Description:
The complex is a heterodimer of chains A (117) and B (107).
Chain A: E1 3-7, E2 11-12, E3 18-25, E4 33-39, E5 46-52, E6 57-59, E7 67-72, E8 77-82, E9 91-98, E10 104-107, E11 111-115
Parallel strand pairs in A: 2-11
Antiparallel strand pairs in A: 1-3, 3-8, 4-5, 4-9, 5-6, 7-8, 9-10, 9-11
Chain B: E1 4-7, E2 10-13, E3 19-25, E4 33-38, E5 45-49, E6 53-54, E7 62-67, E8 70-75, E9 85-90, E10 97-98, E11 102-106
Parallel strand pairs in B: 2-11
Antiparallel strand pairs in B: 1-3, 3-8, 4-5, 4-9, 5-6, 7-8, 9-10, 9-11
Amino acid sequence: HVQLQESGPGVVKPSETLSLTCTVSGGSISGYFWSWIRQPPGKGLEWIGYVYHSGSGTYNPSLESRVTISADTSKSQLSLKLTSVTAADTAMYFCARGRQLSPWDYWGQGALVTVSS
Amino acid sequence: DIQLTQSPSSLSVSVGDRVTITCQASQDISNYLNWYQQKPGKAPKLLIYDASNLETGVPSRFSGGGSGTHFTFTISSLQPEDIATYYCQQYDNFPYTFGQGAKLEIK
Lengths: 117, 107
């Protein structure tokens, strides 16, 4: 049974870099498309970007200048880095598996990141 | 970006009701549309993919339809565990986008 688990700091200071890891267990990350999606408190969902196990991927243009998503097949981990964060980046961050580019059939439980000094 | 507009945004429902939510796309997205259910404090759960295909393990009371710019999501007979927020999501074009959500509440 595939499981995804996000991990990382719960609080990040403004202007610093948000770093999260998604650890995949019960299955390989090879052959799938892995996305990060976020949800500000009480609001809707925003797709951040995806990475294929080979490392290729695409980002949301609204975040492209600040975001990097990567995959480490040896560790079965995905990572998300978001630079120069502001309060607007406060959100629950989810990693999710795509059978193709979409849909996303497995999700992590989410990691809440608050941007605050 | 492709805009997805869900209607209604909120709905008061009773157990046993037939519930229909619509999702209107700002341009033709063929059938590249999925539906997710999200309960408070939980990750979204895939229910319908490619507009009308029921995800494995999802009860048959859930269904989806439509193509192009107009899509529907239906719960044939609402159960208590169906109280949640439902989102449509397109993957015809990058960036992938979601509707604003449709929140079901018990009447």
